[in-house]
Please model this.
Amino acid sequence: MMDAAERRTLLAAGPFNPPWRGEPLLGSSYDEQEIEAAVAAMRDSLDPHVGFGFSASPIPEFEQEFAAYVGAKHAVAVNSAGPGLDIMMRYLNLQPGDEVIVPACNYQAAPLAVYGAGGQVVWGEVDEATLQLDPADVETKMSSRTRAIFPVHMNGLSAPIAELEEVAARHPHPQHGPVPVIGDAARACGGGYRGGKIGGFGFATVYSFHTMKNMTTLGEGGMITTDSDAVEQYARSVRMYGNAVEAWGTSNVMTKVQAAVGRVQLRKLDGFIADRRRVAAQRNELLADLPELILPAEPADCVHSYYLYTCQVVDAWAGPRRDALIQLLGEEYGLYCVIANPPVYQGRRILREHTPGQSCPRSEALAQRLLCVPIHPSMSPQVNAQVCAAVIDAVERLR
Ligand SMILES: Cc1ncc(COP(=O)(O)O)c(C=O)c1O
Model:
């Protein structure tokens, strides 16, 4: 914690300029290495006998290095995480009525992938401490129609993949057998789980290299990892029209310039995460004594990548008071917090209409308490202290 005099000195600098956003528009950082890698890949492509395609070097190198990094057998590069999630849902060949369980507090991409592939979304509750899909709730929702469990590694922390796999193992599908656990790690690239990396466990995992994410390939990009040869073959084929597996496909390829940059970013990823963890650790200390805030949890078997620094306000501050806090922080301190994420069915009508009669009261209540304070690997200890001073000051003003 910091004393009042210290806080006044930190706040004297005035509102953040430029303001800090809940999800900064560049989640990692670039230097000459990325620029040189991109230019080299472009120069290499100028030869008409080489060009930019097809899935040419350094795309396979990036895939192999990424697979080795997360501890999976295969990695297949795609143009963004959304199509990667679509590919995984299409792989299941869902029939009308086939169910896929996704966490309610989620980004829209995973449930939309289920919907788009013709499946039935089943909303699962999330754990209040970690925000991850709750295996106990999933167990109550497993049915003879369940085709997959589809956790999101929410906000940089691993979902409890091992526990979800145990639930899946207890409820095999009558026709298809083992129910796969497919992870959306768009926000958690490089996070740790059970001594390895997210993606080292589970049937398949999808990552995003969008501009805001832990690492980025020129603003868009994604990867699918899996130990399954069949998934690898399918994904590699349908990202380019699906000839080899005689399935529907379209073009979802990554460019070699993106892959060249991705190889550099991947080498830096552990450093970015160490920096995010440094910011989070300092913040955990400075905000520790603020009774209105519950700070992010990190279970013993996880290494949080802190894509977001996800706090909760206590019950008495849920809803309007939390909203007032967000408004005050934005308007007067230039600190724009986000609520990541309320149940998707509250914000997306087509998904609400697709899941009539379903609701997740625990996740709805949790969403009233969420508050993600901006974090970035390049945030200096001084700026981070200013962020904490702003949060403490704003809470005290609203007490
Ligand atoms: C949890 C989650 N899943 C999927 C996506 C989609 O990622 P992309 O923008 O790479 O398609 C995002 C992006 O914001 C996300 O946060």
Residues 80-82, 107, 109, 152, 184, 186-187, 208, 210, 222 surround pyridoxal-5'-phosphate (CB under 6 Å). Residues 4-25+269-398 form a domain with the Aspartate Aminotransferase, domain 1 fold (CATH 3.90.1150.10). The mean pLDDT is 97. The chain has two domains: 4-25+269-398, 32-264.
